[in-house]
Amino acid sequence: MPDETTTTTNAPPPVRDWPALDLHGVDFDPVLAGLMEEGPVTRVRLPNGSGWAWLVTRYDDVRMVTNDPRFSRKLVAEHDVTRLAPHFVPVDGAVGFEDPPEHTRLRRAVAPAFTTRGVERLRDRAREMLDELVAGVLRDGPPADLTERLLAPFPLAVVCELMGVPAADRPRMHEWTNLILSCAQGAERSQRAKDEMCGYFADLLRERRGSGGEDVIGLLASAVAAGEVTESESVGLALLIQIGGEAVSNNTGNMLFILLTRPELRDRLGAEPELRPRAMEELLRYIPHRSAVGLSRIALEDVTIAGTRIRAGEAVYVSYLAANRDPDVFADPERVDFDRSPNPHVAFGYGPHFCVGAMLARLESELLLDALVDRFPELRLAVPATEVRFRRGALIRGPESVPATWS
User: Fold this and answer.
1) CA torsion sign, 371 to 375 to 379 to 382?
2) Tens of pLDDT, residues 335-372
3) pLDDT at res. 1
4) For 116-124, which contacts have Cβ atoms below 8 Å and span 24 or more sequence positions?
5) Which CATH class is domain 15-405?
6) Per residue in 284-301, pLDDT tens?
7) CA-to-CA distance for 173 and 161, rounded, in angstroms?
8) What phi, psi does 204 have (nearest 5°)?
9) At what angle do helices 231-245 and 170-180 cross, to 10 degrees?
10) Among 319, 367, 368, 328, residue whose Cα is nearest residue 346
């Protein structure tokens, strides 16, 4: 990694420490807000890893970096880049750490599960599973922790259905995912959870070899048999998709927190159901999807961004959260505006690493929002908003619990 004396021909911006803040609610990260004010390209040091990295926050620059082959994800695995997570051991087949054409080859193996046809295949089954969960909550009556009863079990059930994971194994998947996506219990526990999940998928893939099927495990088993991916790559892909599916729990939890603390927005969704698709896109733009930043990239050659020279070998982060608040693209970006149109947010990323499960996440969020608005009359928090617990030490932000009541 570079030292602080060899970056640009002009004086580089100072390196700012970016601690792992446990933020409450959907407040925008004050450290990120300060970095955005300093300029479009700054430098940061995160709690783990070594050295510093560039941070790009402006919408156009974020889209350029994420779609530019001069910035490599694959090289990140060879550098101890400053990062949020204490654990950093990418598995074989982790498409997040690949560049085209290998990245394209790996995604192709599971692409049929994430096409419009593949996702719509799950719609009726997803609605059935959600109806069962909602019926149970209504039967038991208020109050209820909606994270425990709906926001966690529903996305987990859907992604396991997509994967081909038997219902009996879903609690283990939930536990492993929470450990992998958390800093709270340290790097060793997170790594052990990752190893255990990889071992599970390796066994499941062997059991399904030759059986085919439209679920992800069936597609991967077929791809291994055809020599399109290796066994270890198929395990890495399965791990990534399973973990990614859990993000919906946190995202919808953040959406629900907004609706319960701003009842005028919730009331409008009830009165104008045709507004919901656009409202969901605005909520996706606005909510804090994660703590700090995700995965970096390494510059393969010298590149100038917004007048700042980034040298070959230096690490670069982009912030999709910051890009979604760029005032040059989103008028009055701090306001939740259900009438915002167009809304070209980058909540699911951009470029080759655009989230493969974006369509599925939208389906789950759509069904959840419909159920929460339509099935729970006068839904409201059962505790003051300041007492809603949010996850601590988490890489993905979201409420740990949403105590709610209704009439």
Assistant:
1) negative
2) 999 999 999 999 999 999 999 999 999 999 999 999 99
3) 46
4) 116/359, 118/214, 119/359, 119/360, 119/363, 121/214, 122/158, 122/161, 122/162, 122/360, 122/363, 123/363
5) mainly alpha
6) 999 999 999 999 999 999
7) 12
8) -65, -40
9) 90
10) 319
For residue 270, the one-letter residue type is G
Structure tokens that stand for 382 in this block: 């059962």
The predicted structure's pLDDT at residue 89 = 54
Q: What's residue 104's pLDDT?
A: 93
- In this structure, the strands spanning 315-318 and 53-56 are parallel
pLDDT at 85: 84
211 secondary structure, DSSP code: T
The closest alpha carbon to 56, from 405, 346, 394, 264, belongs to 346
The residue type found at 189 is: R
pLDDT of residue 187: 73
CA distance 111 to 114: 5
Query: What residues have CB less than 8 Å from 247, skipping those under 6 apart?
Result: 289, 361, 396
DSSP letters spanning 229-247 = S-HHHHHHHHHHHHHHHTH
Tokens of 301: 């050659």
What is the chain's length? 407
**400 close to 389: Cβ distance less than 8 angstroms:** yes
Beta strands 308-310; 303-305: pairing state:
antiparallel
- Its pTM stands at 0.92
| Locus of tokens 């879903």 | 170
Count CB neighbours of 125 within 10 A.
13
Q: Domain ranges in the chain?
A: 15-405
Query: b/e per residue, 98-112, with b = 16+ CB within 10 A?
Result: bbeeebeebbebbee
Provide the pLDDT for residue 9: 47
Would you say the C-alpha torsion 107, 109, 110, 113 has a positive or negative sign? positive
Residues of the chain scoring pLDDT < 50: 1-9
Coil, helix or strand for 178? Answer: helix
For residues 356 and 163, what is the distance between their CA atoms, to the nearest angstrom? 13
Ordered strands of the 297-299 beta sheet: 15-17, 41-45, 53-56, 315-318, 297-299, 71-72
The dihedral through the CA atoms of 251, 253, 258, 262 has a sign that is positive
Q: What is the pLDDT of residue 3?
A: 42
At 54, which helix (H) or strand (E)? Answer: strand 53-56
- pLDDT at position 183: 63
